[in-house]
Amino acid sequence: MVVTSKIMVDHLSVNYRDVQALRNINLTVRPGKVVGVFGPNGAGKSTLVKAMLGLMPVVTGRVTYGDDILAHQLDRVAYVPQRSQIDWTFPATVWDVVMMGRVKQTGWFKRFSAPSHQIVQDSLERVGMADFCDRPIGALSGGQQQRVFLARALAQQAEIFCFDEPFVGVDQKTETVIFSIFRELAAAGKIVLVINHDLGESITNFDQLILLNKELIAAGPRDWVLTRDHMTRAYGGHVGFFGHVA
Amino acid sequence: MSLDLALNLAVLDWFFEPLQFAFMQRSLAVAIMVGVICSVVGSYLMVQRLALLGDAISHSVLPGLAIAFLLGVNIFIGAFIAGVISTVIIGWIHTRSPIKEDAAMGIVFSAFFALGITLITTIQRDNKIDLNHFLFGNILGVTGGDVRDTAIIAGLVLLAVAVLYKELLFYSFDPLGAQASGLPTGLLNAGLMVLIALTVVASMKVVGVILVLSLLIAPGATAYLLVPRLHQVMLLGAAIGVFSSVSGMYLSYYVNLPSGPAIVMVVSTLFALAFLLSPRHGVLVGPGRARPWRQLQRLLRPGL
Q1: What CATH number is given for B23-300 in this structure?
Q2: Could you tell me how many CB contacts below 8 A there are between chain A and chain B?
Q3: Strand pairing of A34-38 and A191-195?
Q4: DSSP string, A25-72
Q5: Cα–Cα distance measured from residue B99 to residue B198, given in angstroms and rounded to the nearest whole number
Q6: ipTM, 2 decimals?
Q7: CA–CA separation, B160 vs B152, rounded Å?
Q8: Mind listing the pLDDT tens digit for each residue in B152-166?
Q9: Of the candidates A53, A55, A90, which has its C-beta nearest B173's C-beta?
Q10: Quick check: helix, strand or coil at residue B294?
Q11: Out of A97, A103, A108, whose CB is closest to B181?
């Protein structure tokens, strides 16, 4: 059992059109921790995760998980895009969306199995959305939509969970539910990688931080990353944030 | 004979009279099949906001059709190839230059359309083909071979959608999430383009390349206002597509209207009804929209 597999990012550079979006990133993401990816707008946070998963072309570098390229093992990955990237008027119910988490595992030309139905039901219950399974997704609040996406990720039964800005526009209850599930996933030895930009109180929920601004500023335990020097280099000048500045 | 029975017989007579003609049987068969596949495939176009792509592909089939005719090949095959080539060029321009996708579509489809019209106009001087039949359809002129070809295309399209339904649902809802879960989204997209091109080619005879967009988008859009899930949109859309095609044909038969436009007018009317009266989204009766309507009623009848 390869519970101790980690993601290694090795000399990763990414261009977006003609602009360099990420420059020579080296870092390691270990399982069992809730890892936050932080940085100012345009720092390349989403780009980093997409490039790690092979969702966009990289200029140089490689990203491995265990012994192989991460992009070749996407069936071990659950990725939740930003809520704003999704057309929520799409004709689908909550159940349909969470069931999408079982598509790859089910395989071509096959129907969803009874265990898959059970997994989807369990995932919905875990995020507190089981009562909404027949609801069209357009009739949900932002927080409920995000919990549906979290349930879809859970239904994928992945080893690596990546979330892009899961806390934008969600209510307090949803934030609590999401963080407690991140905690459970980490405790179960999963890799949990969360893009965030809110430097408020919630930052204390992350064990480790990756601080980014086109290049890697710092990566490691939260208190080690949150120094005034690092924050100035990432955000430049004035930034107020919750936490201790060493 | 009672009046009731006489009326019933008259209705039946009205319904069955056109069916005694072989050309009407063939036209109706093709119209029904096209009504189904246009609605099913068009549902994907609608949810992916690619309605303009349906228009682009349908206009782009013309040059392929003309070239196939010149070479003596099945014109369905030529049209299909031209439709696919146009989507490839659109994608190429859009990914390799700063030109946006909608601009690329506008450029490519008008270029293909112009080339097609030029070719067909040149050919039709010496041959027995009519540009208008391709532009506006010529459903009364369908041959037994057309019925067979349409049946083959409809079978292929419906089989593909049934078999790939869960993958296409995931891809069309959340392409990035689908790609990140390991699905080959490039292939799925290409497959979808092929389905659209096949559907457009099969629809040429019924409504022509200019009006096919209506049969692709309007049935699914009408159903979308009435039911909440994609497969329901497709099924109800197919029923709406079939009803529109068949009633358009009857209108065409009895009132002597051109059949393509008659079909399109029926489906557009159905959309307008759903837009105004859908219980879920209707402008006049939908939830949340009821209040302005009631206020208007109150204004008109202050006693209420």
Answers
A1: 1.10.3470.10
A2: 83
A3: parallel
A4: EEEEE-TTSEEEEE-STTSSHHHHHHHHTTSS--SEEEEEETTEEGGG
A5: 27
A6: 0.93
A7: 12
A8: 999 999 999 999 999
A9: A90
A10: helix
A11: A103
